[in-house]
Amino acid sequence: MRVSLGLTSRGVLCALAAAALAMALPPTAAAPAPGEAPRIPFGERYRATQHGGIVRAANSAATCLTPATTGTPPCAQARKGAAKGNNGDYEMTYVDIDDDPNTYNSSGAELRLPAGARVTYARLYWGGNLRVGEQKPPEDNGRVLIAEPGGRYKEVLADTVVGHRRTGVMDGYTASADVTGLVARSGGGSYTVAQLNVAAGRSPAGAWGGWTLVAAYAHPGEPLRHLLLMDGYEAMTPSRGALEITAEALPVPPGASGAAGVVAYDGDRGRGGETLTVGTGTAPAHRVRDAANPADDPMNSTITDHGRPAPRRVPAYPDTLGYDSDVHGIAPALVRGGDSLTFRFTTRDEGYQLGALFLQVDARR
């Protein structure tokens, strides 16, 4: 956002690739993540009040290959968003943009930092579905590769509990790691993330996977803002009811501007039935919607900034078929100001999982 929060199974190949990379890459200083949990309540990861903002780069790790059900539109049409197609209706495969024989998935996106910005915090989120036509081992959930602009792949290990939930139809997870040092040194530009632990093939739930790199920055020429990053792992199903995530002790002046980003897994385009509202408690909550994210379908397999496709992604598929990383304007929710901000998620039809929430809000007018 600048937009400052503005084919068949390849299991053997994947195992060989992972082994080769393990020998080729130096170990990192990060410790292994302390276990996993099927549910992780959302909590604060980073907070600051400073002149600056939050930006992010994101992309998907899985896409369609061929239709697997009668009446399903061609894959090319689904990728372009020209026809409604869900990941469970296709044989799914990996996105792989690099020419490295040791990686089986990779995708890229630009992190757009303003000139003169100083990165104060950065975190990489990734996740996917391990069980589709093939089953991937969960032991690899906490490891990915990242290449900074002009750089080579570096191993990143999850540094906190990995969310990992198994059901009869899916085996999903989310993981994350602090990458502040790397992003502060490297700055803005195109980042590539590879070797996400995601499965290919076909199942009723379908394949999904993706990553989001979130960076908070300071810049003397920008407004004073509250910057907040929260994360967890919450599965939204019709039977669970609403989920509320509240940013406490967040003084918002009346008429403030602001934006919020949401990272979610397995949202299907066109299914509808889910909502996202934002409110301060001083006025009716605002139902989030824009040109790319309808009010009743905000989890619709998009990577967008304020209703427009996020720029400079490779590949730049408008329909990710199962991964959302969207930035929404939330100024209508801030008209009367307040002391906290509550995000309320619901669904009455499809299931999806939430992985991260980030926001910037004016601290004064």
Can you put this structure into words, describing what you see?
The longest helix is centred in the N-terminal third of the chain and has 14 residues, at 11-24. The strands form five sheets. A ten-stranded mixed sheet has the order 1-9-10-6-12-2-13-23-15-21, with helices on one face. It has helices at 11-24, 75-79, 180-186, and strands at 36-37, 40-60, 62-67, 90-94, 106-111, 118-129, 143-147, 154-157, 162-166, 171-178, 189-194, 209-218, 224-236, 243-247, 258-265, 274-279, 286-287, 304-305, 308-309, 313-314, 323-329, 341-347, 352-362. It has 365 residues and is mostly beta strands. Residues 1-24 form the signal peptide. Residues 288-312 are annotated as: Disordered.
